[in-house]
Amino acid sequence: MEKVQVKQPEYFSKFKCTMGECRSNCCKHNWQIRIDKKTYDKYVSLKSEIGDEFLNNIRVITEDPFLAIIAPNEGKGCRFLDDKGLCSIQLSLGYNYLCRTCIMHPRSISYIDGKWETYLEPSCEEVVRIVLFDEKPIKLVDAILEPDGCGDYIPNKMLDTSKYIKSLDAVRIFYSLRNAAVEIIQNRKYTLRVRMLFLCLFIQQASDLIEQNKEFEMIVFVDSFLQSFKAGDFDSIADEIPNGVENDFTLVLDILRDIEAKGGKRFNASLLQTFTALNVPSEDNILSDEFCDNYKIIYNDFLSDKEYIFENYLVNSMLMEGFPFNYLKENSILENYASLLAKYNLIEFLIVGVTAFHEEVNEIAIIDVVSAFSRCYDHSLKRYI
Predict the structure, then answer these.
(1) Residue 164 in contact with residue 342, Cβ under 8 Å?
(2) Which residues contact 262 (CB under 8 A, 6 or more apart)?
(3) Is the pLDDT of residue 64 over 80?
(4) In a 3-state reduction of DSSP, which class is residue 324?
(5) Would you tell me the crossing angle of helices 192-211 and 333-358 to the nearest 10 degrees?
(6) How, if at all, do strands 107-112 and 157-159 pair?
(7) What band does 263 get if pLDDT is binned at 50, 70 and 90?
(8) Read out DSSP for 188-251?
(9) Lowest mean pLDDT among 107-121, 312-326, 351-365
(10) What are φ and ψ of residue 218, in 5° steps?
(11) What span, in angstroms and rounded, lies between the C-alpha atoms of 171 and 215?
(12) Nearest to 317 by CA among 122, 174, 118, 31
C-alpha cells in the first residue's frame, strides 16, 4: 500500500492510551460509536452466538463510510463492556475486530482538498496533559499516516475550501490564513487577550475581502498584516486593553448552566468547584464588581505566566477545526472566530475556577475540567454559538 503523507503536531507521537489508569474510560460514556462497513461485515460473517450477540446490539444506519452504530445503552456506556469494564469484543475476538472509531479515538483525521492532517482530541485526559502543559508552541511536522484497523485511510472531517473561497487559489489562501492566525496566537510578546483582539482584526479584514470578492488580494493582505504585526505597529491598541483579562461572563454562565443540566457527573463536579470558589450565584448570572475583581486577581496571580496552557488549547482547536474555515461549512469566518472566542472564554473561566478552588495551578484538576468540558461541549449535537 502506498504511504500517505500527513501533517501532525509534534505532540502526536507522544500519545499512548493509559487504559486502566485512565480516570474516565471513553467506553463508559454515552457517545455514538459508529461502525464502518468492513467491521460490520466481519460481524455478519461470524457464524456463532457471539456474532448474533454483536448484531443484536448494533443498529444499522446509512452514513457512508459508516454502516451502523452500537445501540444506546441508557447511560451505561458501550454495550460491549463486560463486568470489569473491559471490551468484550477485543477479549473474545482480538484487536482486529474493533471498529475504526474505537481504534482511532482520540485521533482526529482531516482531509483538506487533497492533503491529510491528524490531531488529538482534548476529550481524552491524556491528550489534555500532553497538549496543554508543554511550554513549547505547537508545531506541525511531516509524518506517515497510519491506516486504521481495516487498512483504510478514512478522515473524520473533510474540508472543501471552495465553500469559502471562489478561487483556484482557495487551498493556498486557506493555509495562508490559518498559518497567519496561528502565528498571531503564538506571539507571546502580547497577552493572550491582546492576541485574540489582533486575531479578530485580522479575521474582520479577511472577511471584508471575501465579501467584496477580492480573494485575489488575500495573500498580499496576509503578508502585509503579519509584517505590521511583527513590527509592533499595533502596539498602541494593545496598550489600551486593561490587564489582558476580559470575559463575557453572562454568555459563559448561560452555556455552563446548560451543560450542567445534562448531568455529566465528572464535568458537574468540576463546575461545582468553580462556582463555589468564585462565589457564582446559584440561580442568576448577575455578577458583582467584587467577583470580577477577584477573577482578575486569580488569573494574574496564578495564570498570567502560564498562558501557554490556553494558547495550546486554542491552537489545537484552530488546527483541528479547520479555522478560520470550518468543516461544517455553515458559518462565515467571522462566526467561526466568535465560536473560537466563546470556547476560549469558557475554558479560561473553568480553569480560573478550579485554580481558585485548589489555590494553585493543579494539573490534575485542569486535566479533569478540560477533558470533561470537551466531552460535553465538542461532542454535543447542540450548537452553542
Answers:
(1) no
(2) 376, 380
(3) no
(4) coil
(5) 170
(6) parallel
(7) low
(8) TTS-HHHHHHHHHHHHHHHHHHHHTT-GGGHHHHHHHHHHHHHHTTTHHHHHTSSTT----HHH
(9) 107-121
(10) -65, -45
(11) 12
(12) 122
